[in-house]
Specification:
Layout lengths: L2 H11 L1 H5 L1 E4 L6 E4 H17 L7 E5 L3 H13 L3 E4 L9 H15 L1 E6 L7 H6 L4 E3 L19 E6 L8 E6 H14 L8 E4 L6 H14 L2 E4 L2 H6 L3 H9 L3 E4 L1 H11 L14 E4 L6 H12 L8 E6 L6 E4 L8 E4 L1 H7 L13 E4 L8 E6 L12 E7 L5 E4 L2 E4 L7 E10 L2 E7 L4 E3 L2 E3 L1 H9 L9 E6 L7 E7 L6 H19 L6 E4 L14 H4 L7
Parallel strand pairs: 1-10, 3-4, 3-5, 5-6, 9-10, 11-12, 12-13, 26-27
Antiparallel strand pairs: 1-2, 7-8, 8-19, 13-14, 15-16, 17-18, 18-21, 19-20, 21-22, 23-24, 25-26
Helix pairs in contact: 1-3, 3-4, 11-12, 14-15
């Protein structure tokens, strides 16, 4: 039996599993079920899966929106000895024919024999059937309880996590039972989780690793109370998030940087005393570059409701390590490393300077590697770099995936010594990890390495630009003509005079920040920028929005 499944069952059948559980259905019809009740349903679903012919090691895909239905379904897959894949969900604007084609490529890639289908996607049964895909509806999936979990090895896959890129060119991270157990235990230690006192509150999508692992699997594994809503619930009413933390006295939450910016903006117009955020001890910020200005706006607005700035926890993670790579120390708040821009861009060194230095770069300190993981910085030849020397970040440890599944077959992720290339550039200072940016996105001009986040933060600071909706696009990469453009969203799009003034101001702010003028500034209406299914901006795809000539 894998340590992961063994612990999950022990938690569900113990006192903690009966005392704690998950609340779903907010804000309209909140329903609470204990982890013991979730497990009881999961055993019946697992019994139906095994009776229906699902074998040990098989890949099962899940397409559902309701966390109350997803929790027992994924546990049932694990009890039946299978691996689970959360499929990317279509939205109201999705072309279903295109989605079906992408989904078929994913199902073929992961070798899925079955899709578990739940609301609100029941109507897609016809689409799956027309394409020869076997499915079972979650509402009908019940049978005799499975007597004992199917025995699986530590190196067998537990989760095939789809990456956040284009679904038309899919890739899945192969997360084993050993990977999942190791990273969950490491995060339990680093976040100082306490099932007796903690309550987690989340709206994160369950097809993304931070939602699926951090805010469903971890609380289910250790028996922590969870309040779970969906991304549409949050996006439709962002103040639902602080409202749930207040009413349920949440202690732990998490989101990408853009969500904290949205929450800060929406809390700004709310009367004092509306929320009580004093119970929050961890507000994890991860999954995308962290903007210190956005963090400050969140903590400043939250202070009116008792939020303590120390609760901010900056983190570094990726699906390739199951979820977490590094966590800042608990309840220390945001700490930044302020460095000289010229040394950073030209000398590849992070030389500290005073915070008020002209054009200084400020990077959040993301904490030390989680227990069981090592982080190393190397140059292009693989030679190890020293303290404050910028290079390629790589990671090694039990939580690191052994490989990807791709449309062209399996792909190994580790070198001969077990190191995984993260694709990120950064450095280490005082044992803490600092990420400068994605290597493929770094803009190289005049011998300088310009990080797109610096450009994007400058553009986002201009009034009229939608928070979190500015992208620096690398053009003519790797040539003598390499340059960059800035693409933003604004409600001013379509108003010629206003757009000209906005573009001029964005260019000026960017020049002030990085000393270079963008090739062009493109202003689009809200909702135009390409994003991944989990909400991250796609820089490469945004390049097609920049007019040529």
């Amino acid at each position: 039996m894998s340590r992961f499944v063994d612990t999950m069952v022990a938690t569900a059948t113990g006192a903690g599993g009966r005392a704690r559980g998950m609340t779903t259905g907010e804000p309209n019809a909140p329903t609470r079920r204990s982890w013991a009740e979730v497990h009881e349903q999961a055993t019946r679903m697992a019994g139906a899966l095994v009776a229906g012919g699902v074998a040990r090691g098989e890949s099962i895909a899940v397409l559902a929106g309701d966390p109350a239905a997803i929790a027992p379904a994924v546990q049932a897959v694990w009890l039946a000895g299978g691996s689970t894949t959360m499929l990317h969900q279509p939205t109201a604007r999705t072309d279903l024919a295109e989605w079906a084609g992408d989904t078929l490529r994913v199902l073929t890639m992961i070798g899925a024999k079955l899709v578990l289908l739940g609301a609100p996607f029941d109507a897609l049964a016809d689409v799956l059937e027309q394409n020869g895909v076997a499915y079972r509806k979650l509402d009908d999936l019940t049978g005799e309880p499975l007597g004992a979990p199917v025995d699986v090895d530590e190196d067998m896959p537990a989760l095939l996590q789809l990456t956040s890129g284009s679904t038309a060119d899919p890739k899945a991270v192969r997360i084993t039972h050993g990977n999942l157990w190791s990273n969950a235990k490491a995060m339990e230690v680093a976040a100082e989780l306490d099932p007796e006192t903690d309550r987690m509150v989340s709206w994160l999508p369950l097809f993304h690793d931070m939602g699926m692992v951090g805010f469903l699997t971890v609380p289910m594994l250790f028996g922590i109370d969870l309040v779970k809503v969906t991304p549409p619930d949050f996006l439709g009413r962002p103040t639902l998030w602080p409202d749930l933390i207040s009413r349920y006295r949440g202690t732990i939450t998490a989101a990408p940087n853009f969500a904290y910016a949205i929450a800060a903006r929406r809390m700004r117009g709310v009367d004092d005393g509306t929320f009580d955020l004093s119970t929050l001890r961890i507000a994890l910020n991860g999954a995308e570059p962290i903007d210190p200005a956005a963090v400050k706006s969140f903590t400043d607005e939250g202070a009116r409701f008792g939020l303590r700035p120390e609760c901010v926890l900056c983190a570094y993670g990726m699906a390739e390590t199951t979820l977490g790579v590094a966590f800042a120390p608990v309840f220390t708040g945001l700490s930044v490393d302020v460095v000289d821009p010229e040394e950073l861009e030209g000398g590849r060194r992070a030389v500290p300077v005073p915070g008020d230095s002209p054009n200084a770069r400020a990077f959040p300190l993301l904490g030390p590697p989680l227990p069981g993981l090592e982080v190393q910085v190397v140059d292009e030849s693989g030679a190890v770099r020293g303290e404050r020397e910028v290079g390629q970040l790589r990671v090694r440890g039990e939580a690191v995936t052994p490989g990807y599944l791709t449309v062209n077959g399996p792909l190994a992720t580790q070198d001969a010594d077990g190191w995984l290339d993260t694709g990120d550039e950064g450095y280490v200072v005082d044992g803490q990890v600092v990420v400068c940016g994605r290597r493929k996105d770094v803009i190289i001009m005049g011998g300088r390495n310009i990080y797109p986040t610096d450009i994007e933060r400058a553009a986002s600071a201009v009034e009229g630009v939608r928070a979190g909706n500015a992208v620096a696009v690398r053009l003519d990469a790797g040539t003598r003509r390499e340059r960059f453009a800035v693409v933003v969203e604004s409600k001013l799009a379509g108003e010629d005079d206003a757009v000209r003034a906005l573009s001029k101001e964005i260019s000026a702010r960017v020049v002030d920040a990085v000393g270079l003028r963008p090739y062009s500034v493109v202003v689009l209406k809200p909702g135009s920028l390409p994003k991944t299914p989990s909400g991250k901006l796609r820089r490469a795809a945004a390049a097609s929005l920049v007019p040529t000539g």
